Write a sequence for this structure.
């Protein structure tokens, strides 16, 4: 495996230069972020100088399409990405989420605990990324989707950003389908190394847009609570989205947030502090 180390203002610039030097395409490369110049969404989007290792895998390590035809995957109805959740006066039933899917809060705790108990190895992380790409390739083949997978890595996680036409079907309502696919990908890719290398899936930067939408909603509703003095209940959300609301308002001294209800219908309540 041939590897070059590139320093540039952004990760994309460093990756482009590395691909040029190695004479390979983006899909063939294994990208490892050595130094993160600034914090951004999940620590993977930067503005200062970035240091990146780009590797050209051996032929036998390249991702191949599965030889066996996977069972067709019944595609859920496409939803418009990054739609703003509505505000409700009382908890309303929504489409039930799979009970077996782990809450992102618990996944985050497991990930942090795991980082304390193992020694990071770039070779193992790269193998996990390749296994994740193989699994996803089989899923997309069964769904007859043409998807390009962009891989970015640092010591905390592997980001696979998916690009292509008509990929709203992979997102689902408020990202529920994307979260389920991410969970299955981690099961398939993390067996060899006990899930130490967390795989994060995104579709055309949906998660960043969704995060911006939820933060804006939290600030707007907090303003309403301050004006009226009445608590506001949001619609049921996944644990990861509730966490975004809590973090967005944690430094606001005039309001407080709490999660109420039973899974999978837990929701956030914003209240004015006494």
């Amino acid at each position: 495996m041939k590897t070059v180390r590139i320093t540039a203002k952004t990760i994309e610039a460093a990756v482009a230069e590395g691909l040029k030097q190695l004479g390979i395409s983006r899909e063939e490369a294994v990208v490892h972020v050595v130094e993160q110049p600034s914090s951004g969404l999940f620590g993977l989007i930067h503005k200062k100088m970035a240091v990146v290792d780009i590797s050209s895998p051996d032929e036998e390590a390249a991702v191949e399409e599965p030889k066996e035809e996977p069972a067709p995957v019944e595609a859920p109805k496409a939803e418009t990405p990054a739609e703003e959740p509505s505000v409700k006066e009382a908890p309303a039933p929504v489409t039930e989420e799979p009970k077996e899917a782990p809450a992102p809060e618990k996944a985050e705790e497991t990930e942090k605990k795991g980082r304390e108990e193992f020694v990071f190895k770039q070779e193992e992380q790269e193998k996990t990324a390749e296994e994740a790409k193989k699994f996803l390739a089989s899923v997309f083949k069964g769904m007859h989707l043409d998807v390009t997978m962009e891989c970015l890595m640092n010591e905390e996680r592997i980001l696979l950003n998916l690009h292509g036409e008509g990929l709203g079907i992979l997102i689902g309502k408020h990202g529920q389908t994307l979260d389920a696919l991410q969970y299955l990908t981690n099961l398939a890719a993390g067996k060899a190394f006990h899930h130490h290398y967390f795989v994060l899936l995104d579709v055309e930067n949906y998660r960043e847009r969704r995060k911006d939408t939820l933060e804006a909603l939290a600030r707007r509703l907090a303003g309403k609570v301050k004006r009226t003095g009445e608590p506001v209940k949001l619609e049921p959300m996944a644990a990861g989205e509730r966490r975004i609301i809590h973090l967005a308002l944690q430094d606001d001294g005039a309001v407080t947030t709490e999660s109420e209800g039973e899974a999978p219908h837990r929701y956030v309540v914003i209240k004015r502090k006494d």
